[in-house]
Amino acid sequence: MSTKTLDMSPKELVNDDGNYILQNQDVYDLLKYVYCGVLLPVTEDAYKARLNISVDVMDKLSGVISPLVKAYASTQDHCQAFKDTTYPTIVSLASDVYHYAQNAGGDAKDSYYGNIFSSIRALADATTQKEQEKLTATINGLVDVQVSAITKLQKRSKQTVADLRTFEGQTRGDQSIMKERSNAVDAKLTEQVGSLDDLENKLQQYRDELKSDQVAYEHDKIVACTTPTYAWLGLIGLITASTIAGIYGKKAVKMANRIDEVNKLIKGYEGKIKDETVVLADLKAIDADLGKVLALIDPTIAVIEKMMGVWSAIADDLNNLREMVNTDVRTANALSVPSSGMPSPTAVSRFAQNVPHVDKYRKAAFVKGPEQISLDDLAKQLRKQAAK
User: What's the DSSP call for residue 238?
Assistant: First the structure.
């Protein structure tokens, strides 16, 4: 067996950018857009209050709003469960990794890996059968502890993937029903006030532009592993509030101007169909953001499964090392004493180096629930930031 296949390292648990494997855009975005579902109104009264529309318009649209709100209630329930239960299990996987890395790394003398390699060196020098048997049992026991920890982590990861698949099925069903109910509201609005396609096309253009402006800033936040905060921007959709808060100068003015244009566009319809306009804008903003959730589940699962593959490779290294100890202790000893003379620095020190990266992620990954902000308030905030 070639020692080249046994680097005993943490492999790709940390990416090339120095960040933990789950510190990933898709994982962040999944929670981000799930929050759109968490904020959905689940009663007709809550719907009316959210949009501040008249009783008259609510009565006219009741036949289509009532079924829509029932669909929202189901979606909200599933998104709330994801936020409260499934997403925290993704983050808790990082805690498992953190504790493993602490135990595997640490100081060479205190770490599991350090003790495995020091025992291998002692075994290579052992002269009596009793001493050899004792050291072999020690090595096997230490390896068993590490492999058992990996097995538990793999089991939790598999359950998280299963929970994500369950959420995927729920989301697919919810979106099918919501699309039907949303189309019914759209048709009713068209029947009552005529086509609002021109308005919606312009609103979507503004949504795309505003969200595009956030992309680079949001990516920097993720790379830096800072805790994101989100907000529901009325008629536009979910935004990353912590990203917006970091925009200054001309870029802040540019974004504020766009928001003013959205306000002007909406107010241009106020004379006749203000409430209908608001209903349409909110409907399409929800459709756009919740529509992203389903497409983000597979990439999130792929990241977790990649991590599971890394852990399988780490477990294989340990099992292969144990086999090597029992069949060719000289080769195992050569692996444990690199040219530096220190006990396996590529294993012990590299696991130790991973600890702060994983810890940074798990501390930043839990985010507060989003707030709701109006177009006017966001424009004012941006203009203040522009003046700094």
Answer: E
